[in-house]
Amino acid sequence: MSLSRARVRRSRRRSTSGRAVLLTAVAVAGALTLTACGDSAGGSKSAGSGGGNYVTGPGGISTVAKGKRDDAPKLDGETVDGKTLDTTTLKGKVVVLNVWGSWCPPCRAEAPYFAKVSKELADAGKDIAFVGINTRDNSKQNAVSFEENFGITYPSLYDPDGKLMLRFPKGTLNAQSIPSTIVLDKEGKIAARTLVAVNEEQLRKMIDPLLAEK
Predict the structure, then answer these.
(1) How many angstroms separate the CA atoms of 57 and 192, rounded?
(2) Dist CA 64 CA 70 (whole Å)
(3) Among the listed residues 92, 152, 179, 162, the one whose alpha carbon sits nearest the alpha carbon of residue 128
(4) Cα–Cα nearest to 173, from 50, 31, 37
(5) Residue 26 CB neighbours (<10 A)
């Protein structure tokens, strides 16, 4: 084989390898796009099944044992319907925080479950409060329309710049993607989190153990 032919074959192999790497990277990026609408600037995701004091189960729900939980930050401000809300006034109840945007397909997919579960638990007189955190919506009207379309009756803080999510301390179960759901125990401590859209079963798995705590 001549030297020039050997060089051509090596060049072709490198080119094929490069295309394979590029295609793999594109596939991974596509998969990440499907799992969440976007990332926030706060915190870093756990690389394994556990990190710090929390453990992440196979369904992607992270939990912290009672006695090892961190205090949730104060989340306050104007709601999408023009009222005001301060989550620290909700101590004594389990608090379900859902980060969402009207522009986010996974948020639309999970919204019916939040509407259903929040209404059923309220009708049952459970000590629980649902609070949305609406983010990256340039107009409150878009958020109001979302809530009306899906029958969301609980309040949502209006947080277009994502500043409220940054109040969660790094290293805790903080909100890192849209959608995210964080559940606080009755003492106002961070007890559970998921970084993907949830169905009814997953949502109740996050809530029920905390409602049962004494």
Answers:
(1) 11
(2) 9
(3) 92
(4) 50
(5) 10
DSSP state, residue 214:
-
Amino acid of residue 90 = L
Name the DSSP class of 72.
Answer: P
The C-alpha torsion from 168 through 134 and 163 to 71, rounded to 10°, is -20
Three-state SS annotation for 90-126: HCCCEEEEEEECCCCHHHHHHHHHHHHHHHHHHHCCC
> What does the alpha-carbon distance between residue 105 and residue 103 come to, in Å, rounded to a whole number?
7
Rounded to the nearest angstrom, the gap between the alpha carbon of residue 145 and the centroid of all alpha carbons in its chain is 21
For the stretch 154-192, pLDDT in tens is: 999 999 999 999 999 888 899 889 999 999 999 999 999
